[in-house]
Amino acid sequence: MSITARAEVIAAPKISVTFPGLTKQGIPHTDLQVQEIVTRQSWPNNLAKEGGCRKPQFHPMFLEEAYNKCRDICAEYAKTFYLGTLLMTEERQKAIWAIYVWCRRTDELVDGPNADYMNSGVLERWEERLHDIFDGRPYDMLDAALSDTVFNFPLDIKPFRDMIEGMRMDTRKSRYKNFQELYLYCYYVAGTVGLMSVPVMGIAPESSVSAHSIYNAALYLGIGNQLTNILRDVGEDASRERVYLPQDELAQFGLCDKDVFSRKVTDEWREFMKEQITRARFYFNLAEEGASQLDKDSRWPVWSSLLLYRKILDAIEDNDYDNLTKRAYVGRTKKLLMLPLAYTRALSKPGFSFH
Ligand SMILES: CC(C)=CCC/C(C)=C/CC/C(C)=C/CC/C(C)=C/[C@@H]1[C@@H](COP(=O)(O)OP(=O)(O)O)[C@]1(C)CC/C=C(\C)CC/C=C(\C)CCC=C(C)C
Ligand SMILES: Nc1ncnc2c1ncn2[C@@H]1O[C@H](COP(=O)(O)OP(=O)(O)OP(=O)(O)O)[C@@H](O)[C@H]1O
Ligand SMILES: [Mn+2]
């Protein structure tokens, strides 16, 4: 059965929305883009090389220092994820650290301490720098690590540009009319991470499913993570006057922004949250199938990310759906127990259940 067909079966949404990216009624833009990227990945070279650029020749010690800096940032911001990367081959872990740092810096432009200085010029300049990275002309040391990475792996610039587009969207918009709008935002800021990661993590040689479906699964893991991140942070985002929830679905449960800002956990809120959690789990389930298709050395960090983020949904339930005054947290013990489980999952061979 194809992943698309299965998604339609599972969806049976109580909320009357489609799951874009999977169906023609959705956002074909996103799906087309996956198609385009997969096609490019199958070329022997990436776009930068095709444009005639040669691999930049950095001094090996400079590169080592650049990657070490990326490693340190990754270890500081995402400890568990960093542990997961340690099981990857050296080339892959360096590449993932460099991508992580670029994503983190992009996110910090809008979320970080200098966010007050954010304007369209800042993002334009950041995008120019991105092109320079892909052309082998990095601006600083952290950019140099990514520049080296894009010449070592068949990375496409499109998901990187799309992430910047997501930051633009975030600066312009603080409400989402429906799930379709929210899905696009989630694709931009997190689905893109999945698309960036697959060429580095590699597909298992024994996998017989299409590359297209694996890229889709990676995109869905990003969507699941971002939806979870949003549900965990509703209260925190409300303090910044932001509501990353579909307005039409709030209304279906008799809710509106005022209820979010009042921070009262009512039965309506609980019912609404149950539906949102179901949807996030739906995307995690889709991603699971792809995680087993990755190269065996890359599966552990992916399973860790999937299981950790999924646990945050359980923690929201354990808080009786109070994500307005509390931040769902997965305790250290639970988190550590999850690592061997992720490892066991990572040992499972690619299945042949979808194409
Ligand atoms: C192996 C692995 C997990 C690789 C991904 C590493 C990577 C490059 C991560 C970058 C993450 C990042 C900094 C993104 C910027 C935008 C952002 C902040 C998105 C949110 C991440 C959570 O971060 P955090 O909780 O720290 O955010 P705040 O503190 O609230 O700012 C997101 C929720 C997105 C995370 C999305 C992913 C990690 C995508 C995972 C998908 C894959 C790795 C593909 C796996 C492949 C298959 C086939 C399933
Ligand atoms: N125990 C947790 N409960 C809820 N969310 C978490 C937890 N641990 C991490 N996260 C979220 O997942 C993201 C990445 O996870 P990771 O475990 O790699 O980071 P971390 O450095 O271990 O996080 P933390 O410093 O919060 O323990 C974090 O940035 C955070 O937003
Ligand atoms: Mn953020």
Q: Main beta sheet: strand number and arrangement?
A: 2 strands, parallel
Widest beta sheet: strand line-up: 1-2
Number of helices: 17
Question: What fold name goes in the CATH topology slot of the largest domain?
Answer: Farnesyl Diphosphate Synthase
Indicate the structural class.
mainly alpha
Give the full name of the CATH homologous superfamily of the largest domain: Farnesyl Diphosphate Synthase
Number of domains: 2
Strand content: under 5%
- Would you list the SSEs in sequence order as H and E? HHHHHHHHHEHHHEHHHHH
What separation lies between the terminal Cα atoms?
A: 7 Å
By CATH, the architecture of the largest domain is named: Orthogonal Bundle
| CATH domain class name of the largest domain | Mainly Alpha
Low-confidence stretches: 1-32, 39-49
What does this molecule look like?
The protein is an all-alpha fold and 355 residues long. 68% of the residues lie in helices and 2% in strands. The protein contains 17 helices and 2 strands. Strands 1-2 form a two-stranded parallel ribbon. Helix 4 (60-77) packs across helix 6 (90-111), helix 10 (179-201) crosses helix 11 and helix 11 packs antiparallel against helix 15. The longest helix has 25 residues, at 267-291. Bound molecules: the ligand CC(C)=CCC/C(C)=C/CC/C(C)=C/CC/C(C)=C/[C@@H]1[C@@H](COP(=O)(O)OP(=O)(O)O)[C@]1(C)CC/C=C(\C)CC/C=C(\C)CCC=C(C)C, adenosine-5'-triphosphate and manganese (II) ion. Residues 107, 111 line the site of manganese (II) ion (MN). The site of the ligand CC(C)=CCC/C(C)=C/CC/C(C)=C/CC/C(C)=C/[C@@H]1[C@@H](COP(=O)(O)OP(=O)(O)O)[C@]1(C)CC/C=C(\C)CC/C=C(\C)CCC=C(C)C has 29 residues, from helix 6, helix 10, helix 11, helix 15 and helix 16. One of its GO terms (biological process) is carotenoid biosynthetic process. InterPro entries: Isoprenoid_synthase_dom_sf, Squ/phyt_synthse, Squalene/phytoene_synthase_CS, Trans_IPPS_bact-type, Trans_IPPS_HH. It comes from Corchorus capsularis. Its EC number is 2.5.1.32.
